[in-house]
Design goal:
The chain is of the alpha+beta class. It contains seven helices and 17 strands. A hairpin with a 4-residue loop joins strand 14 and strand 15. The chain starts with a helix and ends with a helix. Bound molecules: 2-acetamido-2-deoxy-beta-D-glucopyranose (2 copies) and calcium ion (3 copies). Keywords: Disulfide bond, Lectin, Signal.
Length: 328
C-alpha cells in the first residue's frame, strides 16, 4: 500500500512538474524537454517564428546535453552530416550573438568547424550546428532545417484548445477554437501564422459560425488594436486561387459548399490593385481584399489537433539501430 501511495504521489508530481505537449514533438528525459525536427529548410526568420508560434524556441546547443539531444534528433533523420539553424543569432546587431531566449554566445560551449566563425562577406549573422557536432556562422536568409524545443518544465499547461496559447478561445456553438490576431499581416503571413499554430485561417461553415466570428471580432474593438491600418476588416480562409471571382476556402470548397457565402453590399469589388484574398467586416459579411495589405486576421483550430502526449521515457528509434539490425 505504501508503495502504491508513493508511486501515486510520484506520478502526480511527475505530471505537475513535466507538462504534456503536442505529440509531434518527442520528449527527451536528459534535457526534460520536447524536440521537433523541421527537416524542410526555411530561412532563419521563418524558423524562429514557427517555433515561437508553437510555444517553443529555436533549439540551441546551450549545454553538452542539449548538443547531444540535437545530434540525436538529427541522426534519426539525416543520413549525412547536415547543418541546421540554431537559435544563436546576431540579427539585431552584427557579432552580438545570443540565443533567441537571451543566452550570450560566450556562455555556450561550441566546437567551431575549421575556419569558422568568419562572418564571410560580412553577411553571416546566424549560427548553424552540424550533426557532426561543429558550429559555423552562416547567412540567415539561406534556408536550412532546424529543431524547435519546448522545455518540459514550463508551467503553462496545454489548454482545452489543445495549445499552450491562451489567446485561443473555445466556442461551444461550433466546437472550435479561434484566435484573433491583432498584429496585422499580409494574407500570406496570416496563413503561415495560423498553420504554425496548427490551425488555419477561419473558414465560415454556417450562420452560427458567422455569429461566432462576429463575436470574436467584437471582442477586439479598434481601440484594442495598436497601429495605423484598417481595423474593420480581418483576413479569413478564402481566396480566389488565381481566378478572380471564383472564391473558395483555403481547403478548396466553394463558399456555398463550405456553408456561408454572404458578401457585404458592393463586395466583391476587386478594388485598388486587384483583390484575390478573403476577409470579413465586423458584420461577418465577406469582402475581397488586396492580399499584401497588412490587416488583423482570425485563425480557427480544432481542439483535438494536434493530439497531446504526456512525457514518457525516451523512445529509441535510431536509424543506426535499424541499420544494424538489418545487417545482423
Ligand atoms: C563537420 O562539418 C563541417 C561542415 O559543417 C566541416 O567543416 C567539418 O570538417 C566537419 N567535422 C568533422 C569532424 O567531420
Ligand atoms: C481586378 O483588378 C485588377 C487591377 O485593377 C485588374 O487588372 C483585373 O483585370 C481585375 N479583374 C477583374 C476580373 O475584374
Ligand atoms: Ca562562416
Ligand atoms: Ca469553420
Ligand atoms: Ca473588396
Amino acid at each position: 500500500m505504501k508503495t502504491f501511495i508513493k508511486s501515486f504521489v510520484f506520478l502526480l508530481f511527475f505530471i505537475y512538474t513535466e507538462c504534456a505537449f503536442r505529440c509531434d514533438y518527442q520528449y527527451r528525459q536528459l534535457t526534460k524537454g520536447w524536440f521537433k525536427l523541421y527537416e524542410v529548410p526555411e530561412t532563419w526568420q521563418d524558423a524562429r517564428l514557427r517555433c515561437t508560434l508553437q510555444g517553443a524556441v529555436l533549439a540551441s546547443p546551450t549545454s553538452s546535453a542539449m548538443a547531444a539531444e540535437m545530434r540525436h534528433t538529427m541522426k534519426n533523420f539525416f543520413l549525412q552530416d547536415t547543418e541546421i539553424f540554431t537559435g544563436l543569432h546576431a540579427t539585431f546587431s552584427s557579432q552580438s550573438y545570443y540565443t533567441v531566449d537571451g543566452i550570450p554566445l560566450s556562455k555556450i560551449p561550441l566546437v567551431w568547424a575549421n575556419n569558422e566563425p568568419d562572418n564571410f562577406g560580412n553577411k553571416e549573422r546566424c549560427i548553424t550546428f552540424n550533426s557532426n557536432g561543429s558550429a559555423a556562422d552562416r547567412m540567415c536568409e539561406e534556408p536550412r532545417p532546424y529543431i524547435c524545443f519546448r522545455s518540459g518544465e514550463k508551467e503553462v499547461l496545454t489548454n482545452r484548445c489543445g495549445t499552450v496559447d491562451d489567446e485561443y478561445h473555445y466556442y461551444a456553438k461550433t466546437k472550435k477554437c479561434y484566435k484573433f490576431h491583432r498584429v496585422p499581416g499580409s494574407f500570406e503571413r496570416a496563413h503561415f501564422v495560423c498553420s504554425a499554430e496548427n490551425g488555419h485561417l477561419a473558414i465560415i461553415n454556417s450562420e452560427d459560425e458567422a455569429e461566432v466570428l462576429r463575436k470574436v471580432f467584437a471582442d477586439n474593438p479598434d481601440s484594442s488594436i495598436p497601429g495605423s491600418f484598417r481595423k474593420e476588416v480581418a483576413y479569413i480562409g478564402f481566396h480566389d486561387w488565381g481566378t478572380w471571382g471564383d472564391f473558395r476556402t483555403v481547403h478548396g470548397e466553394t463558399l456555398k459548399e463550405a456553408g456561408y457565402d454572404k458578401f457585404s453590399g458592393g463586395e466583391p469589388n476587386n478594388a485598388t490593385t486587384g483583390e484575390h484574398c478573403g476577409a470579413i467586416y465586423r458584420s461577418a459579411l465577406l469582402d475581397d481584399l488586396w492580399c499584401d495589405k497588412p490587416v488583423p486576421f482570425i485563425c480557427e483550430k480544432d481542439p483535438a489537433y494536434p493530439p497531446i502526449c504526456q512525457p514518457t521515457a525516451d523512445e529509441e528509434i535510431d536509424i543506426d539501430e535499424r541499420f544494424n539490425n538489418k545487417v545482423e
